[in-house]
Amino acid sequence: KFTPRIFSGIQPSGNLTLGNYLGALKRFAEKQDEGIETIYCLVDLHAITVWQDPEALKKQTREAAAAFIASGIDPARSVLFNQSQVSAHAELGWLLNCVARMGWMNRMTQWKDKAGKNAEKQSLGLFAYPSLMAADILLYHATMVPVGEDQKQHVELCRDIAAKFNHDYGVDFFPAPLPLIEGVATRVMSLRDGSKKMSKSDPSDASRINLTDDADTIAKKFRKAVTDPEPLPDSLEGLEGRAEARNLVNIYAALADKTPAEVVADYAGQGFGVFKPALADLAVSKLEPISTEMSRLMNDPAEIDRILGQGAEKADAIAQPILQKTLEIMGM
Length: 332
Ligand code: ADP
Ligand code: NA
Fold this sequence. Notes:
Its main location: cytoplasm. The protein is mostly helical and 332 residues long. It folds into two domains: 5-180 and 300-329, Rossmann fold; 205-295, Orthogonal Bundle (Tyrosyl-Transfer RNA Synthetase), CATH 1.10.240.10. The chain has 13 helices and five strands. The strands form two sheets. Strands 1-2-3 form a three-stranded parallel sheet. Strands 4-5 form a two-stranded parallel ribbon. Helix 8 (152-169) links the parallel strand 4 (144-146) and strand 5 (178-180). The longest helix is centred in the last third of the chain and has 29 residues, at 301-329. The model has no long low-confidence stretch (mean pLDDT 97). Bound molecules: adenosine-5'-diphosphate and sodium ion (NA). Sodium ion binds at residues 150-151. Residues 150-151 line the site of sodium ion.
């Protein structure tokens, strides 16, 4: 009943990382190149669930758009736009707030992690975030959502919201979108702590590779990455219980489009004194063209705004009929 359609987003909250690239951007471009209809969104309405400096947000939004384009997302073949420019997101978000349950939001691990013991002090928006994310996806009747591991629970919640809406109104209107969590880089870990995911919001800059880092910085961060003193084993089993080593192997594999087993076979018996510089060279060779293209695009903000404006028109043309139908189903 529903044609295959991909939707995904990234928050323009600054400092896009290698985790965002391998877990999201690189895969977004691959999906586009497979010929599936792809809709990609800079989710600024999500970013403002925590304070954003207005001038910085503007710049970060353009920078995130530049990162998409530099990573291979072609605005002529994918819909690339900024969430706040398509008002149907906020509107469907409200409608779904009235379908989703408080208890469901309370169970979200990202909410618990971000709010910590300070839930009372968080914005209402941060709590409702997964409901707006469900609206982002359902507004396009998207059937697949490529995300990193950390977003799996939110996509599953989106399925629950869609099912409850369909059930409450006796319709078969919203699809149950599938999270696409594929490849070896679905959870890139911090370079300083193998138990934490690499994140743009980590206060330690050394914990992550930023897409805008220069070659020296990338080499230095990999050189200083926390690892154990053992050399690389000759099979994957030898990486069990070695989270940091496994993470670096996964990053190498994802960047080289190899399997982790192939990487381990190539470097069996070598120490990190050899592996880390090789990884840094590989990362620089893949990321340098992206950061160069990003700075080129950032020199022409008007052009980025024009691309995002056109993307918003295309997105709105799909979203409006679905929003109107939702309102009609609900009696409005
Ligand atoms: P962040 O978590 O860095 O703030 P977002 O919430 O905007 O970034 O996530 C954008 C996309 O990047 C999501 O699909 C998310 O799953 C993915 N992602 C974020 N961090 C990582 C990571 N360390 N490894 C793999 N994917 C990630
Ligand atoms: Na995230």
